[in-house]
Amino acid sequence: MSPPTAALTKKDQVDEILRCGRDPVYFMRKYAKIQHPKRGTIPFETYSFQDECVTAFQENRFNIILKSRQLGLSTVTAAYATWFAIFHKDKNVLVIATKLQTAMGFVKKVKVILDNLPKWLMLTKFEPTKQSISFANGSVITAVPTSPDAGRSEALSLLIVDEAAFIRDFEDIWTGLYPTISTGGSAIILSTPHGVGGTYYRIWTEAEAKVNEFNSIRLEWWKHPEHDQAWFDKETKNLPKRKVGQEFLCVGADTKIVTPDGYKRADEIKIDDLVLTHMGRFKPVLNVNSRLVRMDETLYEVSSPGSRKCKFTITGNHKMLSYRFWANNISSYDWLKNNASEQSWIEASVIASKRKTTDRITNVLMPKFDPKPVEMLTTIDVSTLCPSIDVTNDTCRYERQWGNTKRYVSVDFELGKFIGLYLAEGCNHRGGVDLGFHIDELETHAKWCIDFLHKIGCRTTLLSSKIHNSCRLWTFNRHIGALVKLFIQGDRASNGRWAPNKRLDMERVVASGREFIKGLLFGHHLGDGNHKHDKKTCTYSTSSKLIFQLRTLNTMFGLYPRIGHVELKKKNPRHSDMWYLEFQAQGTTYLGLLENGQQYRTGSRTMLLGDNFVGHHQMTDVSHLSMLDGGYEVYDISVADDKSFVAQSAVLHNCDFISSGDTFLQPEDLEYLRETIEPPSEKSGPQLCVWTWRKPQPAHLYVISADVARGDSSDFSAFHIIDRDTCEVAAEYMGKIPPDKFADLLAEYGKLYNTALICPEQNTFGYMTCVRLRDMGYPKLYFKNATGDLFEYKSVDPDAIPGFSTQSNTRVQILSKLEELIRTKVLKTYSQRLYDQMQAFVWVGSRAQAANDAHDDLILSLAIGTWLTNGGTSLSEAAIAMAYAMMKATKIERRDISQMPGDIQSAKPLVNPNIRGYNAQNVYKPVDPSMVKHADISDFSWLLK
């Protein structure tokens, strides 16, 4: 440890200067001081996560940070920029901030550090201004607010962009700035999330996927050691839900995540690994984070009929895909059969607390595996699998082979059955294959394999085995050995030879089609399954990864077997634990199950419902695990596109980028839009940009609303075709087209959809589209002064311009109506493009608009349409019902004048008004009726007073 500064000799000072120049973290911790809002100027005692960021700045040329608020990253980057300028000559550091005040604040932080450095460490003089600091060594630090030409004419050594997600037109700024650092400069881009879309989001997602040169750094709020749950609850108490970060959903380290290779533990998952999602497909992992469970955090251990012996752990706030079923008076089976549309993401703690008498809740367990291979594999040319000679159209041979092998092998049920039998009974042997069978299987499985191999030209040998009551079948044919290796993998040592290491090449298996997969499952069950068909049948394997792969493939055929694990009581290196899949056979064979699907029972049995398997999860509070020595580590896994992953038997939601952004819609409403996404049934129109989900229905009324762009700029023209009867989007368009051509396209689809009512936006470029529609004589156009039935209205003014005028007040109205219809789930829309735009549609002050470099054309188009179909131009059903109720509650009661209280004289003023009341001595004086006199009945002059 260095001696105190005052006692440093010249040599010590030189040593300190050299050490500070090599290590910016040491420089910050030892000599930097910062301005604290309450404690004044204090030493900069950095935290470990801040030190890791500084190290990343040194090791990586490009860094992008997704951070929570109040982590001190702006101060860290200011200290790093100070170190960079002091210890390096002729360095140009540019800081771009969202506004001038922020830029000046950055320079102030640098100046505080410089003013408090020891004189011997201040190697160069500096001259500060409000927005820059120039050093005598040629370095300069400049901080500027956002502008299109910021830093364009300078060669930058270090670029720092603060809150990049909030910078409008950041795409143009980044395009102009990148050449300034292309000669060797570095960049640090940091921001809190602000919706999905825009340049910052693109750079971040590409960095996560390792597509660009950026090093991605994710900093959640709990990274700060002083931020506990109490701090988080206090900070977010008064914030709307959409502003509160939700990036803290975690699973236990030993949780088994379903992948194409069977499963991987959560602590083994890496970026780019493929995992199974709730959509029944494999998607890549974008990010993996780990942390220790906090002391005040709830942990749940989860199990289900699908994997009671394969439990996993999640934090209480982790969301699971669940059907909302809390009723106790009917069976879950009956309820789900009739109400299966109510599915949503629910936090584990909510699931556990909703049930008073049990800790079980009906949930979606796992999706049906629904692979869609790019190209189907129908035949295999075995001559390409190993060096071959004498290759003809029908046969091939390798050197020193006896006889010929059939060159082309069909990828069908029979090949799948052979691969399945090999999975159960075989191993690679001298380039060929070796299978072992029980003596009772000589006339069944062994004979079938011999016949199959002979059919493709393979010589075989069948001999009794040293193992009691068994026999061995082998072939030394290298073609068949290589063919098997196409589908079956293993570790490097065994190359799939030993049973505990076997697993499938899922990509090739999926590309081989359903019949091949059915044969593979059937063949494996023949070899490693039991065959009691009265109630249950099981398939066994010593390869746990293979068992998970086989269960995933079984779901293609409507089967969701229970997975089990049998541990050996006495450990033997020659034997492994056994895994199994258990099916409810109910009197049928396993092949019958594959062909007809599993027969599910009511009650607690797992059942197939639509595209999901449903069953009961059991949840147990295991929060005591977090008290173990060293803490309990949990992992957060972020998956592309589907934003979910299957953990053993549960579908879990991963961290979502949008959840910290100030999005127009609440997170649950965005989730509703995402869940309703469907691929269009047809793509047509210019550049196939018209997506159709529903064909026109007879007698239905349709509205076509449109947002019009110039046709050659960055914005798009868009239209929606909305069924007024069902409030359903039947079709939409988003593309670049001239306004006059856009009018022709609107008219074309308007006629197709029962002469729909067309309402384009009337502003700017929309004016040309509206005039074109009017002049071509389209029969149903929306006019602002329309009264009565919009579909029958004809404007009396031939010069009137149709269309909807979007002004500040009308914009608020149509967006409010759109939000209401989405929130109440009245509107039905299926568009991925709309969902993408909604993710990037955020609040900027009091105005909802597209985030930086994002688009909102589809949103505004749909907002106009929903306003017409269920908005202010006519009364909605709810409004009519409310008005009827108010009118019904209103009564008018008529009375004759004789029924009114008093008489006409009592309405006249008194002549002697002081006849009653308190006298001067404050004593009440009773009224003498004989003294009461009213004015003349014919005198109405009092009315004029």
Core attributes:
globular, six-stranded mixed beta sheet, eight-stranded mixed beta sheet, Rossmann fold, Nucleotidyltransferase, domain 5, 24 helices, alpha+beta, Endonuclease - Pi-scei, Chain A, domain 1, disordered N terminus, 48 strands, single chain, 945 residues, 24% strand
CATH homology superfamily name of the domain at 16-234: P-loop containing nucleotide triphosphate hydrolases
**Averaged pLDDT, please?**
80
Detail the poorly predicted runs. 1-5, 241-248, 325-330, 355-359, 492-496, 656-660, 872-880, 913-918
What CATH architecture of the domain at 16-234 do you see? 3-Layer(aba) Sandwich
CATH class of the domain at 16-234: Alpha Beta
